[in-house]
């Protein structure tokens, strides 16, 4: 994996959650949509957008804040920090695209005209590693 934010199971969970939340409907194969879904799920108002075919931008008008106690952590903060850096953002998007290819080949996603739908295998699988 090129990204340092997630290990394989963590990234699988992010992608799985995106498709399970849309089931039984198909959704576009777009890595940015997956990460925008994850940002929203974590309580962030930030978004990623395509600037052109090769570049993305990260927009965050109201950054998430950590709680005042040291015993709590807001996961949106570290996600925003990571995605705010172009290199990390691009590595994560590349990992999502590579995972998609594998998920289709392994039968976890059904692909039709650029859209993906969760299969029964994806719905039954919560982790890729034990």
Structural class: alpha+beta
Strand sequence of the main sheet, in spatial order? 1-5-4
- How big a fraction of the residues is strand? 5-15%
Assembly type of the chains comes to: single chain
The gross shape turns out to be globular
Question: First CA to last CA: what distance?
Answer: 18 Å
The whole-angstrom Rg is 15 Å
Please estimate the helix content: 40-55%
Q: Determine the number of helices (DSSP H or I, runs of at least 4 residues).
A: 5
- Main sheet? 3 strands, antiparallel
Order of helices and strands: HEHEEHHEEH
Tell me how many strands there are: 5
Q: Are there runs of 5+ residues with pLDDT below 50, and where? A: none
Report mean pLDDT, rounded to a whole number.
86
Q: How many domains would you count in the coordinates?
A: 1
How does this model look, in words?
The protein has 130 residues and is an alpha+beta fold. The protein has one domain. It is 47% helix and 14% strand. The protein contains five helices and five strands; from the N terminus they run αβαββααββα. The two termini are 18 Å apart.
List keywords for this structure.
130 residues; alpha+beta; three-stranded antiparallel β-sheet; two-stranded antiparallel ribbon; globular
